[in-house]
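Q: Here's a chain of 81 amino acids. Please give me its 3D structure as tokens.
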Amino acid sequence: MNIANMRLKAGMTQRELSGKIGVAISTVAMWETGKSFPKTSMLPKLTQVLNCTADELLGIGQSGPAGSASCGEENERRGEI
């Protein structure tokens, strides 16, 4: 997930983001560190507040750690396809 990157790009603190989407600051921090993930029902609100697409937020279609492989590529590497 790219929540931290998208939040910083939007020029927001964790406190500001948490206030705009109605969650605790600690929740945003846990999302950003990968200790938990937002519910899918929260994605539309996050994308609206962060002014990004769900794909950008989830790191889909990017190279690098956040979106290095598609699901199919990952399964293929593990021999599941």
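Q: Can you summarize the key feature?
A: The two ends are 25 Å apart (CA to CA).
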